[in-house]
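Model it.
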Amino acid sequence: MSAEPIMEPVMTQDPIDLLNAIEEASPVPIRPEYVEGTIIVPPQPNYNHSKGAYKLAVQFTLAGFDLAGMGLGFRAAQKDGTTIAAVVPDFYVLRREPTDLDNSYLKTHRSYPIDMIALVGEVTSTNHKTDTGPKFRAYAAAGIPIYVLINRHSKTAHCYTDPVLPGDDPTEAYYATDTKVTLGDPLPLPAPYPTLDTTPFLDN
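Modeled.
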């Protein structure tokens, strides 16, 4: 599967409808995403990617964060209800269990509202520029307090905090603080989260 973003015009219909159409038309299981006006079909994760992401999610669970998980999709919207982003993070910690309202939102938008996320995480594959660019800005624009990034391309791990949205343009958003370590070193996170063991990615 190609790791390059698939570009589609999205001005005439909700991007969610296009994501559904692409997913249904694919001969293999995919989870297309939408960020910054672009529909992205991420590359199929390999074993090392999936194993490492799972081990990170488990670290949160073992530290007592029962709402840590993987596999759910989330949608960010403008004030007028227009879709800004629809993403499927590699792992996350939620603020709350889904409510009936959240589940109704899922039926309508194929994703949960992104404000459910307290911490979000990505592990780069060959599409590392997506996680370090458009998704970095999308998560900051959504106000997610913590973005954990395992960058296998640069062999670094990051804990981004202090999201900033300077104006109304989500593509200008960023995280003001970057705590960075070399893969293999412990990655400290803000309290009450655990320090993460990044050694599962040493040889990946």
